[in-house]
Amino acid sequence: MIELEGVPELIDPVMVAAFEGWNDAGDAASGAVAHLDREWKGEVFAALDAEDYYDFQVNRPTVWLDNGVRKITWPTTRLSVVRIGGAKPRDLVLVRGIEPSMRWRSFCNEILGFAHELGVEMVVILGALLGDTPHTRPVPVSGVTSDADLARTMDLEETKYEGPTGIVGILQEACTHAGVPAVSLWAAVPHYVSQPPNPKATLALLNRLEDLIDIRIPLGELPEDARAWQLGVDQLAAEDSEVAEYVQTLEEARDTADLPEASGDAIAREFERYLRRRDPAAGPETATDTGSYFRDLSGGRPQPKAKPDDAADQDGPAEGEAEADGAGDGDGDGDGETP
Asked: pTM value?
């Protein structure tokens, strides 16, 4: 039985989760939850026992000094709560951690135990994978669910993916079997520029989350960070003719695929987002430079970012090959194949 002390009664709570590792290309998903936690000053109320779920030879603890006293931070998953004010206040339960090394079913059951105790109405899990998408175009974000009714009512894709999966896929299925509405939002990150951070993909996930649960997220410096990131990649691409040619090929494929997609729904979403952004309380934003580098373009199919312990598995079929199908088809729409 999970007992929560000091957590107030929540208003229409939605749980938003992201996990570092295989499901988090460019740290885009974990970066999105970190942004929410930072902007709304989330208060941590629970942390899972690291001994139960993590291999410390894979995810090592860190030692640091606090006023001369040595302390240890253990890799784990933490839960915090934030309250969104305004005319229609609501609460978010933020789950942020590292993909567990073991006992995934127990891990998901513990997360669902918190969701049940807090009265969570829906779980939104953020993920990011590497794909054949150009950095110069809007980041494709696919919204998928295993719930056919939820897919119809929220204009989502009903996932038909089969193959290896990560903790995002496992947690979504656990929610479905427990009767908790669950949605996964997946951003496609250009596989040729995969070094984190990727603020453009993080921004795209937050924009889609806004649309999904009808809230306004303060973006702070993130839009300028995204523009600085793209400018930096533009400059690097201009210095390498092979990369520039490859990016142009991706752009042509993407534009051809997107041509029929100048839909009224897409225009309506952008207009609704514009109206939310007209809030005069939104402060000025300043640019922050970010770094990046290119991956080998001849490396075959794009794969989700591997954890350090995945290196030993590279001789056989990479599990990311199957899971990245949705983003690797060139159009970035997911085609329902996102895990």
From this structure: 0.76
Average pLDDT, integer, range 137-152: 92
Range with the poorest average pLDDT among 84-98, 283-297, 320-334:
283-297
Q: Which of 53-57, 86-90, 219-223, 246-250 has the lowest mean pLDDT?
A: 86-90
The C-alpha atoms of residue 209 and residue 197 are separated, in whole angstroms, by 19
Q: What's the pLDDT band for 324 if we cut at 50, 70, 90?
A: very low
pLDDT of residue 326: 41
Which phi and psi angles does 169 have, rounded to 5°?
Answer: -65, -40
Range 46-50, long-range pairs (CB < 8 A, 24+ positions)? 46/4, 46/78, 46/79, 46/114, 47/76, 47/77, 47/78, 47/79, 48/76, 48/77, 48/78, 48/97, 48/107, 48/110, 49/76, 50/74, 50/75, 50/76
